[in-house]
Structure formats: C-alpha cells, structure tokens
Amino acid sequence: MKTIQTITFIAFIASLASIASGFILEVEYSKKLVGFGVLGLFLVVFPLFSYYRWKDKDVNDYMLTKENLDKMRQNQKEKKY
C-alpha cells in the first residue's frame, strides 16, 4: 500500500473504532468518543481520501467548458447512429 493510502485506512479504522466504542461503552465521555470519531471521518479521512483519488487527475476534464460540451454533443451524435 502507498503511504497516503495507509494513513487514510488507519484514520478510518480509528474513527470507526471511536464511534463504535462510544456506542458500546457506558462511560461519561461516550458522546465525546462518537463526536471525535465523526470529526475524524469528516476532517481527516474524507480530505485524505479525496486528495488521494484526485491528485493525478486534470480538473479541466470535469469542467463544463465549450470544448467539453462539444465533445459530449459529438459523442451523443455518434451513439445515436
């Protein structure tokens, strides 16, 4: 596994473990465990995962520019015939 992928996986497991232990354990700080688990998912895991998946992609391929719209129209015409 790559380094960023490993870090993301470990953070994901730690967040899930925190959420699960918050629901299972009956301690006075169980709500905080669930909260920190959710924060970990949304502030650590999701941005790391997004960076890992988008780092080698060109953003202009996903934008609606005139060239991309023309390509889409051309592809639609080719599929019809």
Helix content: over 70%
Uncertain ranges = none
Estimated radius of gyration: 21 Å
Our count of domains comes out at 1
Oligomer category: single chain
Number of helices: 3
Descriptive report:
The structure is a single chain. The chain has 81 residues and is an all-alpha fold. The chain has one domain (3-80). 77% of the residues lie in helices and 0% in strands. It is built from three helices and no strands. The protein has helices at residues 3-24, 30-54, 66-80. α1 (3-24) runs antiparallel to α2. The N and C termini lie far apart (44 Å). The relative contact order is 0.11. The mean pLDDT is 91.
Give the topology, please.
Elements (H helix, E strand, L loop, with lengths): L2 H22 L5 H25 L11 H15 L1
